[in-house]
Design a protein that fits this description.
The protein is mainly α and 136 residues long. The protein is built from five helices and three strands; from the N terminus they run αβααββαα. Strand 2 and strand 3 form a beta hairpin. Keywords: DNA-binding.
């Protein structure tokens, strides 16, 4: 994952620009503030946009007094790759829920026995459900 995805605000800016096609900075800021339900510091917001422009994920052009932002091809590829990654995680979570769920810690068949812990970790990574009915 590229470094810009480490910031939720950067991801959210790209998502909103992708949705709209292009956005003026103030409109983008207003949409983010509505989504977050809080005011965003203007200096921090414009630093975020500058970082995205410098990294090549957004382009900026002047339109009158306003700056208008669009997603670059690289920004679109990065955003769609991240969307695919999130979708895969959510689908896997839905499958887990549909199959009856896991223990609260997310490890299938987990118990405190040290011998089984390695097997349980391997099963969790590979997706193997090795649940046991030890309670009977």
């Amino acid at each position: 994952m590229t470094k810009w995805f480490h910031s939720g605000r950067r991801r959210d800016c790209c998502v909103l620009v992708y949705e709209a096609g292009e956005l003026r900075a103030q409109s983008l800021k207003s949409r983010l503030e509505s989504h977050y339900d809080e005011r965003i510091d203007p200096q921090s917001f414009y630093a975020t946009l500058s970082a995205l422009v410098e990294a090549g994920y957004l382009t900026r052009r002047a339109e009158g007094l306003a700056d208008v932002y669009t997603l670059t091809d690289a920004g679109e590829v990065a955003l769609l790759d991240h969307y695919e990654w999130i979708s895969e995680r959510v689908a896997a979570g839905n499958e887990r829920i549909d199959e009856g769920g896991n223990d609260a810690d997310g490890i299938v068949g987990n118990d405190d026995d040290a011998t089984d812990a390695g097997v349980d970790d391997a099963n969790r990574i590979t997706g193997v459900d090795d649940s046991r009915d030890d309670a009977e």
